[in-house]
Amino acid sequence: MCSNTDGSFTCLCNKGFRVHGNNGTCVDIDECFDDNGGCDHICSNLDGSFRCSCNDGYSIHENKKTCIDINECLSNNGGCDHMCNNTDGSFTCLCNEGFRVHGNNGTCVDIDECFDYNGGCDHICSNLDGSFRCSCNDGYNLHGNNRACIDINECLSINGGCDHMCSNTDGSFNCFCKDGYSLHENKRTCVDINECLHDNGGCEHICNNTNGLFTCTCKNGYDLHKNDRTCTDKNECFNNNGGCSHTCINTDGSFICSCHDGYDLNTDRLTCIDTNECLDNNGGCDHICTNTDGSFICSCNDGYRVHENNRTCVDVSECLEDNGGCDHTCVITDGSYTCSCREGYILHEDKKTCVDINECQTDNGGCGQLCNNVKGSFSCSCTDGYILHVNKKVCIDINECLDNNGGCEHKCDNLNGSFKCICQDGYNIDLDFVSCLDINECTDNNGKCEEKCINFEGTYNCLCEQKRLLNEDGFTCKDVSEKAVSSTIRLSLESEIALRNYSLYTEIRKTLERYFRTTTKATVYVYVNSIRAGSIIVDYTVVIDDKEDQTFVADIVVHAIMDLDKKGSLDIDGNPVPVKPEDYLSIIGPVLGAVAIVVSVILLIFCALLIRHYRKKR
After folding, report:
1. Residues 6 or more apart from 28 whose CB is under 8 A from it?
2. What CATH number does residue 46 fall under?
3. What is the pLDDT of residues 262-280, one digit of tens each?
4. Is the predicted pLDDT of residue 449 greater than 90, yes or no?
5. Alpha-carbon distances, residue 342 vs 339, 356, 360, 380 (angstroms)
6. What domain range includes position 457?
């Protein structure tokens, strides 16, 4: 390149070149000459440049100058069989224990440890890939050091498999058998020696081989001698008669049983069984032959008896002796007889006894209710409340109410087979179910009465204070709107009777009302305000009808009250009852609504009485 300058010029070269001399030539700069171009390993000069490279085992860094180690082990384990060990600029192959490196190609080959001194093993050394193993011959176990071999005592485990005895040896063992046994070919099992196979074991009769032994026994009818070999005859008849029922006869090696007359030997050849003579021509009997133990007996059918020859049967009249055993009637038949029973009985299975027929078991004997069986008959009866009909079977109801009203105090209601007592209104039935107890209505909310409630037998009545009257509803009270006179009277009656008798209470009111109407000749009404004991004290009010001359009638009512004291009695229900007004001067007065008017009327009446008395006297 040419660079102009003020009055001249300068030649310049590209990077990597320098100007040579004064002719403007450019020559290459060898960068490797100075500090190896900065390269770690190899510097190669190029025309106008240079390049760094690395030795084998290294690679160039990104800065193009530094060399870094290549880890050959990262690629395919460096080609090593087992282990790869990286080094600076190179690597080495290593082998696992029991292997060594073969040649320079990184291959590992097994080391045969058994080659030297059998690997240190007592018995057998087995080379393995990269290792080895010691083992022992049969009958030995490997020691804990995995080299030495120690003997196994096979007899300690299941007796070495021996049936009987086990003897341990170095590396092995032997089995032995007890007397009477021989060792099997398998060298473990013990098999019995059958001594009976040789000369019958020396036994005279029977040789019985057993495990490890043998015994001699004798045939039936013989006993074994003390030498345990010889047999001698047994006299079976000495022991329990040989089992014979009757006679025992001993024979050589056996015995024979025989029987008495009338018996035969059974198939078991021991017991004797009875000879049934009846099987041969019925034993010679006319009718019945009964075999007995060792003999037989002739008997006859019913109606016959055995002849003196003990064979023939002759007719018997059974009914002549003890009625033939019949309960009721004995009927003679040819060669026999029959029993029969009276009506109401049936013949028992024994054909003699008569058993009562229980007629009640069939349709209840036809009885309407209860059937009572009796010997040879039955009777019907009825439960309480019924009576038996004339037909002696049907039961008809008894109307208990017809007899003294059934004992009931009030009403009697007949029921089928029974009855029930019922009380009138105002009464409850007592615990005896016949008597009636009065209900005291006044104990319940004062009988709904506004003022006074008085209880009577079977009913009650509401009363009001003096100068007040009972409303039409029979419960509430009202003030007297008409002129009225109130007073009190004492009646000589039995207190308890009057106080509880509603009829008497009503009759007293009617009697007083009748008395005042008769005396005054006017329409007046009497209201009872109270009735109490001592004997019987009655508070009452006389009300004068508003159509009457009330002042005049009131005067007459007062005189009538006075006259009661003189008269001394009232006819109540047709009977004279002693009476006495109670302080009538203090309680008599027409109810006009003000005390002053009442006092004025009383004074006027008193003056009128005095004037009348004076006029009569003149």
Report:
1. 16, 17, 45, 47, 48
2. 2.10.25.10
3. 888 999 999 998 888 899 8
4. yes
5. 10, 10, 18, 21
6. 441-617
